[in-house]
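Sequence of Ribosome hibernation-promoting factor, HPF/YfiA family (Winogradskyella litorisediminis).
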Amino acid sequence: MTVNFEYVNMDVSEALSAYTKVRLDKLSDKYEFLISAQVYFKQDEKDNEAGKHCNIELSLPGPRIFAKSNEREYETAVNKTISDLKRQLEKRKETYKVY
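Predicted 3D structure, token representation.
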């Protein structure tokens, strides 16, 4: 699966990219129909409580799947976003089952 990263209002973080890539590779192993992922990290200076945004868009057969989260830390945002994506992928996998 191809993973593209985009950083908005922040510096590029290789550690954050590697962490996210590992988590997405686990998804790719479980759901073989995934094609690619577009990951956006954004820092919001105005939001004092959280301000760390993670948006992930998965490309697969049919409509794309999208999830986002806003947390205090990027790792927490990545985990929450991937958890939301797993829930959506389980629903999508049901439509691919052969009866």
